[in-house]
Amino acid sequence: MQAIHAFPLAKDLRAKFLAYVHRLVECLGINLVPRLSAIIWALQHPSIDADDFTDILVLLNQIILKFANEATVLQSIVPTLFSECIAKVHQFLGPTWDWSGAEAQPAMLASSPRASQPIVKSTGAPVGSTEDLRERAVLQKQYYTFLNTISQCSVRDDLMSPKESLAIPDLLHGATTHIDPGVRKLCITTISNLVIHWISKIQSGSQGDMFNQADIQEFAYKKFGCDILIFSLLVKPESGGIDIRDAASISLLTEVSTQIKALYDTSGQEYLAILYQETTTRLGWSSDIAQQFTQHIVQLQGRQLKSYLKSLFLEYRKL
Description:
mainly alpha
C-alpha cells in the first residue's frame, strides 16, 4: 500500500497490486477484512481515471460476493464506501454523460461532439475520445453490476431505500432508456430484487420506517411495473427505444415477462388494478384491451407470455 501511494501514476504496479488483492480475498477470506477499507482507499488517488475506478468496483463486487453471508463484515465495509462510490462514478462519467449509452455505442463514437476536444486528463485517454467514451461506458456497466450485487445482500435496506438512495435514479435511467438490451436487463433485474424484497417486508409488517404502502404503489407498481416493464418498451427505436425484433433483445423480453409474472405472483390484484388504470388513462387503451392484457398476465406462462408481450409491443408501435 505504501508503494501504491509512492507511485500513484504507475498503472502497471497498481494492476499487479489489484491482482494480488483479488487472490488475497479468496485465500485469506475473513482474515483480510481488517485491511480491506485501507486497501480500497489506497487505490484511490487524485490521478485515477474511469478505467482505474472500474477496477475498484470490480474488487468491491468480489468482496461483497465473498462475504455475502457475513452480515457483520458487509456492514463494516460497504456502507462507508457506498456513497463515495456513487459520487466517484458521477464524477468520472461527468454531468453531461448520456446515461442511455447512445453516445458510447461504436456507431456513435465518430460523431461524438466532444471527440475533437484536445483536453487531456492527468492519466488515461483524451477526454471525449473513442477510448475515453468506451472506458466510461464500461464504468457505467460495472456500476450497475455493483448495484445488482448489493441488491441481493443484507445491506440493501440501509443503502438502497426507495425514497433516499442516490443509486435508484441511476438504475431507473438504465432500466428505461439504455439502448443496450443487456444493460437494461441488468438494471431491471436489480430493481426487481429490491421491489420483491420491499413488497415482502410490507406484507410481513417488518418495513419499519423505510417506506409505506403508498411508496410501494408509486415505485413498485407504477414506476417499475408500468413505466419500466411496459411503457419503456413501447418506445420506437428511432425515438431511443429498444428494437425488440433484434436477436439481442430476446433475453430482455424473457426477463421482462418473468418480472411481470413475479410482480403479479407477489402482489396479486393490487398490481393488476394499477396496471389497468395506467394503461387506460396514460396510454388511452380501451377498457376491453386493458382487461384482456391483465388477464393474459394471469393466464399465460413463460414463452407464451413473452410472445404475447412482443406482439403487443410491436402492434402498439405501429399506432
